[in-house]
Write a structure and sequence with these properties.
With 259 residues, the chain is an alpha+beta fold. Helices cover 32% and strands 27% of the residues.
Length: 259
């Protein structure tokens, strides 16, 4: 499969600084969105450390095994899944240790939603309430599950979907990378198909742009234009948080240059 991807981040309309970080590394087939928290210095530091650590660990793994990402393997047998999990766990420890050594960074953490492509497989690592969507054949699926108080209330039947959308607790997450030394990382794997789109985004987008709108935009626009349009819509609706999105398109390996 051939991968084309673009990412973009924006401070939004209400914040005076951007605590998000993202990675688009087509050579590694690695893509990450991280939404930091923990004050003016802490949030941005946490998200940056997460992205840098995950990328560095994958580079090392690929240097040690040049065929790591191209060697055919079934989803359940690929070593890539555990390498990605380990990279997020390493990022967690690095962020935690950095916070212990600097009082101005105390309590910092970040969400992480990361995808890596290996042949016909994609593996997703997820912590927090940033999201991974799969757009396929006119439908959109949320691959990741939000680690948030509102999602816990939804699953328990304590609130409705409409109440969740308007809840004053919607920004409270129940799991993050770096707040503690260890973290449980959700891992998903899927077999990709030609013309699939994956969308990684923070809650600054998903709180303001619904799933169907995301599907419409990534289906109609190129990977170059879709992130910009999604961010523009979120800002038109108030842009009350930083907004980060990566759009990834899958094509057959023999396809012409991607959009």
């Amino acid at each position: 499969m051939k991968i084309a991807a673009r990412g973009q981040t924006d401070v939004g309309c209400k914040r005076d600084h951007n605590e998000d970080s993202f990675l688009v590394d087509e050579d590694l087939g690695l893509f990450v969105v991280a939404d930091g928290m923990g004050g003016h210095a802490g949030g941005g530091t946490a998200s940056r450390l997460a992205v840098e650590t995950i990328q560095a660990q994958f580079r090392v793994a690929c240097d040690e095994d040049a065929l790591l990402l191209s060697r055919p393997a079934a989803l359940e047998e690929s070593p890539v899944r555990e390498i990605l999990r380990g990279a997020v766990e390493s990022a967690c420890l690095k962020i935690y240790e950095a916070a212990q050594g600097d009082p101005s960074l105390a309590g910092m953490g970040t969400t992480v939603t990361a995808a890596v492509f290996s042949g016909h497989n994609a593996f997703i690592a997820h912590v927090g309430d940033s999201r991974c969507y799969l757009a396929r054949k006119g439908n959109i699926y949320q691959v990741s599950e939000d680690h948030s108080l509102v999602n816990e209330q939804l699953k328990a039947g304590a609130i409705t979907l409409d109440e969740a959308r308007n809840s004053r607790f919607k920004n409270i997450i129940t799991r993050s990378v770096g707040f503690e030394a260890d973290v449980v990382v959700d891992m998903m794997g899927l077999e990709v198909e030609p013309d699939d789109r994956l969308v990684l985004c923070c809650d600054g987008l998903s709180n303001l742009v619904d799933d169907q709108e995301i599907l419409d935009i990534v289906s109609k626009l190129s990977v170059d234009d879709a992130p910009k349009e999604l961010i523009s819509i979120a800002n038109e609706r108030g842009g009350d948080d930083n907004i980060t999105v990566i759009v990834i398109r899958v094509s057959p390996a023999d396809a012409q240059a991607s959009e």
